[in-house]
Design a protein that fits this description.
Blueprint (H helix, E strand, L loop, with lengths): L4 E4 L4 E4 L9 E5 L4 E5 L4 E4 L2
Antiparallel strand pairs: 1-2, 3-4, 4-5
Protein name: Cellobiose phosphorylase
Keywords: Glycosyltransferase, Transferase
GO molecular function: carbohydrate binding; glycosyltransferase activity
């Protein structure tokens, strides 16, 4: 996947340099009280249970 970004060893993260990935890249964050999804286009969705 180097055509879409690279691993930053110092920050310990994958840096996306091209947001036109073949599929959406989504990070999920949640607990019993809330749920949030973060997309590679800097958008986010908040879903409450």
């Amino acid at each position: 996947m180097p055509q879409y970004g690279y691993f930053d060893d110092n920050a310990r993260e994958y840096v996306i340099t091209r947001p036109d990935t073949p599929y959406p890249w989504i990070n999920y964050l949640g607990c019993d009280d809330f749920f949030r999804a973060f997309f590679q286009h800097f958008g986010r969705v908040l879903l409450l249970p």
